[in-house]
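the four lines:
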Amino acid sequence: MYTIGQVSEMFGLPVSTLRYYDREGLFPGMERSSGIRRFGEKELEALRVIECLKKSGMEIRDIKQFMEWCARGSETYPLRRELFLRQKDLVEAEIQRMNRVLDMIRYKCWYYEQAVRDGNEERLALMRPEDMPEEIKRAYENAHEK
Amino acid sequence: MYTIGQVSEMFGLPVSTLRYYDREGLFPGMERSSGIRRFGEKELEALRVIECLKKSGMEIRDIKQFMEWCARGSETYPLRRELFLRQKDLVEAEIQRMNRVLDMIRYKCWYYEQAVRDGNEERLALMRPEDMPEEIKRAYENAHEK
DNA sequence: CCTTGACCTAAAGTTAGGTTTAGGTCTTAT
DNA sequence: ATAAGACCTAAACCTAACTTTAGGTCAAGG
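prediction for all of em together
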């Protein structure tokens, strides 16, 4: 069992954030001894999941919902499975989106490389995808399509 | 030349958002005819870049900085190139992070699939990575390492 | 003529996810 | 005995990125 300060250290999260999570109901049924929070293995695993779901873009209130399902036991396994399946689709879509953004940025890196060399954008203004290097053309078209 | 309403349609952005962007200085030197904004090709390209940079996680004030560099002309090519190079690293790191999150979620999908079948978590509680299917073991270890 | 609809501004309001503040308790080291 | 250092709460504050509101201009259609 750990104190809030120890958990803060372990996860690199401010104490105030851990208290905020608790206030928001992300640790349902957490123990206390004379008012002081006691983080057990259950809460540590909860925190790992919280970090993962947060990075996946889920909001606190939905994470709370999930934690409540966990507290309810085996009857909610299907709900939890559906949640992760939905989240998987969302994250896969997000990664695809980011790859398109990355291609746009790669194109811009190349563009300004040329602009720096030329000293102006005249040549670039006239350039069509087929005049670009293969790799850049690919990035340009992926970034601009649809 | 387009009105704010036409641009709103074209980009699927609320008119209020376009006005907000303008207020924040994202269209330096945009024309007006008797008070009414006139969006030209310059502003449309600016908007495409704004969408890209926003998705890459850049804040409005930094996008404004970039737009001011664009307005200043060829002397700022190096600054703009550096900006995109930095942004490229950031997005690449973000994609890596998302892939780890995705592996954690894949593991959880599998986990709850098993839990639903078993009706409890007893078997899962005893399971070590080497007992997991190859693909899941990989995801689990990628998601939990470091 | 007068109403509708697109445009405008300034300013206030909203939301998420925290952080900070102010005041209090408890334990431990000097 | 007192001062430092963890812990606690409630409530106020913060920031980014919008959105909403309230009030106004102007052109076209019935």
